[in-house]
Amino acid sequence: MYKYDEIDRAVLDARTAEFREQVQARLSGALSEDEFKPLRLMNGVYLQLHAYMLRVAIPYGVLSSEQLRSLAYVARTYDRGYGHFTTRQNIQYNWPALVDIPDALDHLAGVQMHAIQTSGNTIRNTTTDPFAGAAADEIADPRPWCELIRQWSTTHPEFTWLPRKFKIAVTGSPADRAAIGVHDIGLRLVKNDAGETGFEVHVGGGQGRTPIVAKIIRDFLPQRELLAYLTSILRVYNLAGRRDNLYKARIKILVDAMAPDEFRDAVEAEYDASRGRALTLPVEEIERVSSHFAPPAEGEPLTDIPTGTAFARWRAVNVKPHKVKNRAVVVIPLKAPGATPGDASAEQMDLIADLADRYALSEIRVSKEQNLVLPHADKAALGDLFRALDGAGLATPNHGRASDIVACPGLDYCNLANARSIPIAQAISTGLHEAGLDDATGDLTIKISGCINACGHHHVANIGLLGVDKAGEEVYQLTLGGVGDGQAAIGKILGPGLSADDAVTAVIACVRVYAEQAQPQESFTQTLNRLGTDPFKEAVYGA
Amino acid sequence: MALDALRRIEPQAVELPGDAAPADAEAAIKGADRVVIRFPTFKDGRGFSLAALLRRSGYEGELRAAGPLLPDQVDDLLRMGFDAVDIERPDGPARNRNTGGAPYIYQPDPGAVTARPTALQIRALAARKATAEALAKELDGATPEAILCRAAQVYGGRMAMLSSFGAEAALGLALVAEIASDTPILFLDTGMHFPQTLSYRDRLVKHLGLTNLHILKPDEAELRNEDPDNRLYDRDGVACCDLRKVRPLGRALDPFDALITGRKRYHGGQRGDIAAVEFDGERVKINPFAFLSPQDVADRYKALDLPRHPLAEDGYASIGCWPCTAPADEPGSRDGRWAGQDRDECGIFDPARAERAKRAGAIRLI
Amino acid sequence: MKTITANRLTDGRVVYLTPEKSWTEDADQAVRLEDDATDAALETALRDVLTVVGPYPIEIDADRDGFAPAGRKHVRETIRLTGPSAGSTKLGGAHV
């Protein structure tokens, strides 16, 4: 993984010191709250219901064991012993005091971590495939490009005061485990006829109040032109994006209002005017960054196979193929029955860091499904890994299955939320377990958002729940048929809103319809398309 | 002082709202030498992009940012091309931030007058220098074929050859045609070449089957302004080279990181100790013929059975533009170039630029 | 009936305005305001920029002796009062 050089280090130190000064200026009154708020947001500090929340960036979801231990330290020292991994591959702490945050950031800076641009109307942390560099189906490793984007977007002088937040996702695999279709910019690594690697550029996707799938504005962008082209897209957006209405300020609204062709023409014109040597990626720098992401050495074959069905089931569901011989991708779901999706205790983080050191080349990933991943596990150690994870309650065999539920923090923590998400997720996962349904289907996505900002990604869930406030009560809208990875699709509302209890029952009923009526190997959307919504409506609302 | 006089000496000043459309803004500031962009709020970032576009459009006058801005934004505003920032903040205590800017920058300064190197460039140049030095050691005394083969491995796709199609050019072109035939060949058409050179160029291109010839011409507007009578060479030879060679080449070199030259040590002057591969502070020079003797060159011509430049028969050993080239006494010598002028290089290979090479330090990992 | 709530600047904790115009974490000590007295109290609170962030009025149940959020935002204010009802760091849990 990428290691900072003295330049990265100096930039981070300067930014960390600057934020300490900004906090001091707020405490002394030299900055008003109106002025401080955007400054703290662009350094990841929110004010939530009960306390400040600090969102720490995990660049493209990649962590070293040392970094994970530091995250555990921050959880123990400045939080209540927990961290919450998010759908954008970051981590949030729910209880730090403002006065302590500069110290926490100093500690994190020591392991090359920070909270820069994890909020605010800025370019946010770039996200990618949690299996990047390991996935057997990969065309090219997206991580070097994510790192180059990370540096380019960090403290960008022109794009720090955008109309609205801006999210970029990169995938190197046709399976697209980064959901590039619902990002402001989605980049797909592709090869052209000459065999050169470049990017297919998607723009204007997003969830939130107006869910839209991104449009392709360029079929092939030479890789060295990446930053010049991104700069052009951002410049067109910065100048023309709406600033009069918060809900119409994302780039997807601009692309839609201009029409994709006209938007593309504006970007291409700006690109022609601004491209040149200063914005062209030097080959040496691509090579330097790429050298940090060399493939792992081969592992050893698996000989120690634990007896019993538990290991076999865990291996079948949570272990994925690796491109290197005798290595395996091991998913660690933070989704035990009744657990809070994405939460990990400091002890769990320390344990996973130790296991990564012992069995998996000291590397960990965070997935947008709010799970952790050991991307380079040694196959020979799968038995030991299983036993250690199982002993800590971290071997629930449900990666990608119905009970691998995604949920935002919701009204229990979040200042923006209209309804709670976590208790709904807990009740669904417990209910699925009790009904014997958590093992009854193939891959199935259930996602819950506590407000229309859609941090829980409910729009792209096979079964989605959106919490709304209806005359002071929490009500949930059920959507079906959304898809995030691959060919993105937005789910459609099935019927009238439901109370919390009814929403839980309804989701379980929909899982049952799928479990009972799906043909072999049929995905949820295939079943839905074949059957239509009637059987689901009937199961949820009665005849 | 009379009001009339004041008006005349007061600079033309224009104030633009921070949300002005770029096309309107560019039209509004025509003829101005002082422009103020007024930001409606500190959260409205349009003025940052606007400043960059005004600078790109050629505006070189004073550019000020005004409005309820934050001290925290000053560094970025300066990077976007503003010269000064007027922070209008009636409420709240004054707060100064004197950071002197970030120690390094990840993005090219979009509008600043003097461009600082980015982190990417600093690192890339350090790496380029290290690679070039290693190659120079590896290829010391090597044959032209060995040098170009190795260079093509390392620099393929971002390497070009500059050729004057002069007396000794055919050797280099033949070598490129043999080893890396898709290499772009850059020819500076100064407008001052001997007609023999142009016809020789076309003959050679055909003979060798070169397919990637780039003809670089001086900018027409610059020609009209700086050399309307085509006699600049008489008044200022250095300026003429700058107009007709250095600037067109600078523009054309943009995509390339390595250049193949025809330079040889026996040319003498600053070329007496050139290496097979050299770093000039930004690009790499590949000198496949560095170690050949005049006899080697003659032998190679004979072996290849190549046409020779028509003027070489007339005693011209090194051939450039007609006003600045005379016959020389020694074969292979550059004595006939800029004869009577106090220089022996046109500026393309000026070693002063290599000063920057020394400043490209190694980057430590932490 | 209303009171004024905010988050404390230094640590973000939930606080309520007291009759003495100071701030407390103990909701039972929160000032109980008739609706027509709310604006004046809020104005005072808004000036306290070095102690709290974002003060705003909330509805409370006038018929109960103890402190009980009421009105349209009662779920949210009850969660603010008693802490998260779920999640790994919930304390007592809210009763809503």
What features would you describe in this structure?
The complex is a heterotrimer of chains A (543), B (366) and C (96). By secondary structure, chain A is an alpha+beta fold. Chain A has four domains: 6-109, Sulfite Reductase Hemoprotein, domain 2, CATH 3.90.480.20; 135-289, Sulfite Reductase Hemoprotein, domain 1 (2-Layer Sandwich), CATH 3.30.413; 309-391, Alpha-Beta Plaits (2-Layer Sandwich); 406-541, Sulfite Reductase Hemoprotein, domain 1, CATH 3.30.413.10. Chain A is 36% helix and 17% strand. Chain A is built from 16 helices and 20 strands. In chain A, α3 packs antiparallel against α4 and α14 (500-517) packs antiparallel against α16 (534-541). The longest helix of chain A has 23 residues, at 6-28. Chain A is globular. With 366 residues, chain B is of the alpha/beta class. Chain B folds into two domains: 11-115, Rossmann fold (3-Layer(aba) Sandwich), CATH 3.40.50; 119-359, 3-Layer(aba) Sandwich (Rossmann fold), CATH 3.40.50.620. In chain B, the strands form two sheets. Chain B has a six-stranded mixed beta sheet with strand order 7-6-5-8-10-9. In chain B, strands 1-2-3-4 form a four-stranded parallel beta sheet. The N and C termini of chain B lie far apart (64 Å). With 96 residues, chain C is of the alpha+beta class. Chain C has one domain. Chain C has a four-stranded antiparallel beta sheet, sandwiched between helices.
Q: End-to-end span of chain C in angstroms?
A: 20 Å
The outline of chain B comes out as: elongated
CATH topology group of the largest domain in chain B: Rossmann fold
Spans of chain C of at least 5 consecutive residues whose pLDDT stays below 50 are: none
Largest interface: A-B, 53 and 55 residues
Beta-strand percentage of chain C? Answer: 15-25%
Largest sheet of chain B: 6 strands, mixed
**Strand order, sheet with most strands of chain B:** 7-6-5-8-10-9
Task: Give keywords.
heterotrimer; A: 543 residues; alpha+beta; Sulfite Reductase Hemoprotein, domain 2; Sulfite Reductase Hemoprotein, domain 1; 16 helices; 36% helix; globular; C: 96 residues; 4-stranded antiparallel sheet; 4 strands; 19% helix
